[in-house]
Design goal:
Length: 325
């Protein structure tokens, strides 16, 4: 028995579907145009070659960092980068011309020496002609306490676009302004609101709690994405009905963030137990029972002055996804 309880149904934990199965989430294991979500258990490099070119609006992932974690084989650094180059190249091939690719990485550590992986992978994207739009700093509160250097509390997301003509829905991800009622005090706009009533640009520094033991989304995975981190990218860089890809899906945080906002998703994952958890989470979201930390919730404030918003139950936006067949 595994943690998810889905092991009994092996080797077919996926639901069969027909093209006409409206109202029921269509989960496929292989690339299938009629599916709502494709969850593939296996090696990403092999599976990526089956995805048609230009199909994907956004590839978002956090690859293994080559640290020798339970889900990776530690490689020589050059070998690791050669492998990453192949995966990145395949992801870029699948991107549409107005698409984006977001590569979320931290540090590779060797004998106490840190090597930020974004520095190492940037030349790969550059050589493929991609355009860097932001290097987003994801700042979080929890992690190891270092004794020979300052404790690391951020990772980065490199956001590249394929061309200059890309989707960017800023209004969908604005955050509350600090002084929403502030008005121009002189000039032709005197008395009018001086900030955007929809809120402000969230900037390229994002403070979002990472998923540690007391996080509502915590599963068996040692380094899963908080869903809200992916939600911001899904909402700003894609439109409803678009396909989103995570080649290193883990426990399915990227597919979940996509499906609840009416986008279709492809997730690829090597480890069976993570695929099972991903499917279990997707099924919960289908029933409207998956709890996530809301994007609107502020980070923990020891003074207690921040508004507390409880975890929310999310549901897959089936109507939108199935309208786009
Ligand atoms: C940093 S974790 C990603 C976690 C994910 N963002 C989430 O929210 O759960 C990297 C994942 O890549 C998976 N992985 C490693 N090599 C792989 C490969 N060749 N193909 C597909 N997945 C792989 C690992 O098992 C691991 O779950």
């Amino acid at each position: 028995m595994t943690t998810s309880g889905l092991a009994q149904s092996r080797p077919l934990p996926f639901r069969d579907f027909t093209k006409d199965a409206i109202g029921q989430l269509r989960i496929a294991t292989d690339f299938n145009e009629s599916a709502d979500v494709i969850i593939h258990e296996g090696d990403c490099l092999e599976f990526l070659s089956t995805i048609p070119s230009g199909k994907i609006k956004m590839a978002i992932t956090s690859p293994p960092y080559n640290l020798g974690k339970e889900y990776e084989n530690k490689l020589d650094l050059d070998e690791y980068l050669q492998w990453q180059k192949k995966v990145i190249g395949e992801c870029v091939r699948t991107l549409s011309d107005d698409g984006s690719i977001c590569w979320e990485v931290g540090n590779y550590v060797e004998n106490g020496r840190i090597i930020p992986l974004d520095i190492l992978v940037y030349p790969i994207f550059n050589s493929l002609g991609l355009k860097l739009r932001n290097r987003i700093i994801w700042r979080f509160g929890h992690g190891l306490h270092a004794s020979k250097r300052f404790s690391g509390r951020y990772e980065t997301i490199l956001w590249f676009t394929k061309t200059d003509d890309y989707t960017f829905n800023l209004d969908d991800v604005r955050v509350p302004s600090k002084y929403p009622d502030k008005r121009h005090f002189k000039g032709p706009k005197k008395g009018q609101l001086s900030c955007n009533p929809l809120g402000k640009n969230p900037t390229d520094v994002w403070e979002i709690p990472n998923v540690k033991s007391n996080h509502i989304e915590k599963t068996i995975h040692p380094c899963q994405f908080p869903v809200e981190l992916v939600e911001r990218l899904v909402l700003s860089l894609t439109d409803r009905g678009d396909w989103i890809l995570d080649p290193f899906m883990g426990v399915g945080s990227a597919p979940i963030a996509s499906l609840i906002h009416g986008r279709k998703a492809i997730g690829i994952e090597l480890m069976h137990e993570y695929v099972e958890v991903a499917l279990e989470r997707i099924r919960k979201a289908e029933k409207g029972e998956l709890l996530i930390r809301p994007m609107e919730r502020e980070v923990f404030d020891p003074n207690g002055s921040a508004k507390k918003i409880p975890p929310k139950k999310v549901k897959i936006d089936m109507d939108t996804i199935q309208q786009t067949l």
